[in-house]
Amino acid sequence: MGKIKFFFISVFLVCLFQSVLLSQDINVQKYIGKTKKEVIKKYGKPVHIDNSNSAMICLFYKTKTKRLVFVYDKKGVYQAEAYASYNRKIKARRVITAFISRSVKDGFKIDTVSTNNFQIHKKGITADLKLIKNKITKKYEISVKARKYEE
């Protein structure tokens, strides 16, 4: 009986930590104001760099389920976007919950626009978090769009 209990507790903890780890991959708002070097340290080598305009250099990352874009200039990252897709709504909801919890811990305030739309902000940074169901792919997609603003 003890082994079965241990197994279920282990599975629960793995699921809990997995959703927390997954949400950290899309917490791009915390890189606003950071350097290119800090972004690369976290996410690794980008799949593409567009440096055709020195005032707007873009780093692109892509995995099977996620896409990330960071836009920076000599002052640092001023815009970041993340897109993630999930087969199940409950999985996407877990990621959103973990994302919001992490954002609150990082000092962001959360405004709920609707059950699938949130605005996140703190001094100098604003972000939109959205969950939609893609009717073509039948997947649940999370998008995060963060930007720096001057007060």
How would you describe this structure to a colleague?
The chain is of the alpha+beta class and 151 residues long. It has one domain (2-148): TATA-Binding Protein (2-Layer Sandwich). The chain is built from 3 helices and 8 strands, in the order ααββββαββββ. An 8-stranded antiparallel sheet has the order 1-2-3-4-8-7-6-5, with helices on one face. The termini are far apart. Mean pLDDT is 87; it is low at 13-24.
The residue-averaged pLDDT reads 87
Query: What number of domains?
Result: 1
Number of strands: 8
Helical percent range?
A: 25-40%
Radius of gyration: 17 Å
**Which CATH class is shown?**
Alpha Beta
Compact summary:
With 151 residues, this protein is of the alpha+beta class.
Topology overview:
Elements: H1 2-25, H2 36-43, E1 48-50, E2 57-62, E3 66-73, E4 76-86, H3 89-105, E5 109-114, E6 117-122, E7 125-133, E8 140-148
Antiparallel strand pairs: 1-2, 2-3, 3-4, 4-8, 5-6, 6-7, 7-8
Helix pairs in contact: 1-3
Question: Tags for this entry?
Answer:
151 residues; alpha+beta; globular
